[in-house]
Design goal:
Elements lengths: L1 H22 L2 H9 L5 H16 L1 H8 L1 H21 L3 H27 L7 H16 L2 H11 L2 H22 L14 H10 L1 H30 L4 H11 L1 H5 L1 H12 L2 H17 L8 H29 L5 H8 L1 H16 L7 H12 L1 H5 L7 H6 L2
Length: 391
C-alpha cells in the first residue's frame, strides 16, 4: 500500500538524518574519551554483537513480529542516548555509544525487512532507489550540522538532537506501522541451516561478498577519514563541508541507477564498472598532500559516486533474488554490515601498529577492488527491456 510506503520513506528521512549526526564524529568521541586514535576495538565489539543478533533475528521476528522488533531497536537507541546525556563517566559513555550502534544495526535491518514486505521484484530497484535517496537526503544534512554543533557546543548537543529525532521516529512507528506483516509465516531454521541455505545460492554469496567489501569501505572511512582530516589540520567547519559535499551522490545517483537496473541494464555490468571506479578513487586519496577544502571535497565525492552506485545496485540485485518470506536470507544479507565493520576494525588495529592513517586509504581501495571478481561472475538479473526482447 502506498500509504505504508510513504510512512517508511518519511521514517527513512528522519533515520538518515539522525544517523548522520553521529556517524562521522563518533570516532572523535571515542578518541577523546579513551585518549587514542586506535578506536577500531569499540566498533569491533559493537558489531560482533550486531552480527550475533542478526544471524538469529529471524527467530525473534517469528516470535515478536517485524514492527515490534523495530520499536525495540528504536527504544534502545533512545535509552542509550539518555545514558550518554546523563553520564559523567567516560567509560560509561563509551559503552552507551557502543550500545547505540548495536540497536542502530538492529533498527536498520528491521526497516529493510519491513520495506521488502511492500516491494515487488520488478520494481525493487526503483523502490530501493527511492528509499535510499530519501534516507540520504536526511543523511546529507547531518555532518555539517554536527560539525557546527561541535564548534559551538560539545557532543551533548548532538546527543540531545539525536534523542529528540529518535523519539519522533518511535511515535511514528507506534502509530503508523502497526502489526506490519506480523502474521506472515516465517520458517523455523537454525543458524547452520541458514548458512547452508545461503551458501547453496551462489549469486547470494557473491553479492554478499560485494556487500561486505562496501561495508568494509564504509567502516574504514567512518573510523579514520575524519580523524585523518582533523589531524591534517583541517578545521571542523571545513570537515563538515567536505562530508556534506561527498554525500551528494547518494541523493542524486541512487534512484536513477535503480531505475536503469529495472528498465534497461540489470545490475551486473554497472556493479563491475562502479566497483573499479570506487577502488581507484579510494586509492587515490593516499596520494593527496594538499589540505585545501576543494581538493578533499572533490576526492571524497569521487569515492562516494562509486559507493552510492554499488549500494543501490547490490540492494536491487539481492532483493530481486528473494521475496518477503525470505526473512532469514535478508537477516543473513544484512550481516554484511557488521562483518564489514568487524573486518575493518581488525585490519586497522593490526595495520596501525606499522602504518599510519593515510595508508588505510590504500588498504581500503584494495579491498574494494577484490569485489570486482565476484561481480564479474554474477548471474545477471534481466531488465524489463531484456525480458521483453529475449523472445
Amino acid at each position: 500500500p502506498k500509504s505504508k510506503l510513504a510512512m517508511i520513506y518519511a521514517l527513512g528521512a528522519l533515520i538518515g538524518f539522525s544517523q548522520s549526526l553521529l556517524t562521522y564524529v563518533a570516532a572523535t568521541f571515542f578518541t577523546e574519551k579513551v585518549g587514542s586514535d586506535d578506536v577500531g576495538v569499540y566498533y569491533f565489539i559493537a558489531y560482533v554483537v550486531v552480527l550475533i543478533i542478526l544471524i538469529n533475528l529471524h527467530k525473534l521476528t517469528r516470535t515478536w513480529g517485524k514492527s515490534n522488533i523495530l520499536r525495540l531497536a528504536i527504544s534502545g537507541e533512545i535509552f542509550m542516548m539518555g545514558v550518554m546525556l546523563a553520564s559523567i563517566s567516560p567509560w560509561l559513555s563509551v559503552l552507551a555509544l557502543m550500545g547505540y550502534f548495536i540497536f542502530d544495526g538492529l533498527m536498520a535491518v528491521s526497516m529493510d525487512v519491513i520495506l521488502e514486505s511492500y516491494s515487488r521484484d520488478s520494481s525493487s530497484g526503483r523502490i530501493r532507489g527511492v528509499y535510499l535517496t530519501i534516507c540520504n537526503c536526511g543523511f546529507i544534512l547531518g555532518p555539517k550540522l554536527s560539525s557546527w554543533l561541535l564548534g559551538k557546543f560539545d557532543f551533548s548537543a548532538i546527543f540531545l538532537l539525536v534523542l529528540f529525532i529518535k523519539s519522533i521516529v518511535l511515535l511514528l512507528v507506534i502509530f503508523g506501522l502497526k502489526q506490519v506483516n506480523n502474521g506472515q509465516p516465517i520458517p523455523r531454521i537454525t543458524v547452520p541451516e541458514l548458512l547452508s541455505r545461503a551458501w547453496k545460492r551462489k549469486s547470494i554469496i557473491k553479492i554478499y561478498y560485494i556487500s561486505c567489501a562496501l561495508e568494509f569501505f564504509y567502516g574504514m572511512m567512518v573510523m579514520y577519514s575524519t580523524l585523518y582530516l582533523i589531524n591534517s589540520g583541517i578545521s571542523w567547519d571545513n570537515v563538515g563541508s567536505i562530508l556534506m559535499i561527498m554525500l551528494l551522490p547518494f541523493v542524486f545517483f541512487e534512484y536513477p541507477l535503480g531505475w536503469l537496473a529495472d528498465k534497461y541494464w540489470g545490475e551486473k555490468e554497472m556493479l563491475v564498472f562502479f566497483l573499479v571506479w570506487q577502488a581507484i578513487a579510494t586509492i587515490g586519496l593516499y596520494f593527496i598532500s594538499s589540505t585545501a577544502l576543494w581538493v578533499w571535497a572533490l576526492a571524497m565525492l569521487l569515492t562516494r559516486v562509486g559507493a552510492a552506485a554499488v549500494q543501490v545496485l547490490r540492494d536491487s540485485y539481492f532483493y530481486k533474488r528473494i521475496d518477503g518470506a525470505d526473512v532469514d536470507l535478508i537477516d543473513f544479507f544484512r550481516t554484511a554490515a557488521p562483518v564489514g565493520y568487524i573486518a575493518a576494525a581488525v585490519f586497522s588495529a593490526i595495520l596501525l601498529r606499522w602504518l599510519g592513517l593515510r595508508e588505510m586509504f590504500l588498504v581500503n581501495g584494495l579491498v574494494v577492488f577484490s569485489a570486482v571478481i565476484p561481480a564479474i561472475r554474477l548471474k545477471d538479473n534481466l531488465s524489463e527491456y531484456e525480458r521483453n526482447h529475449s523472445a
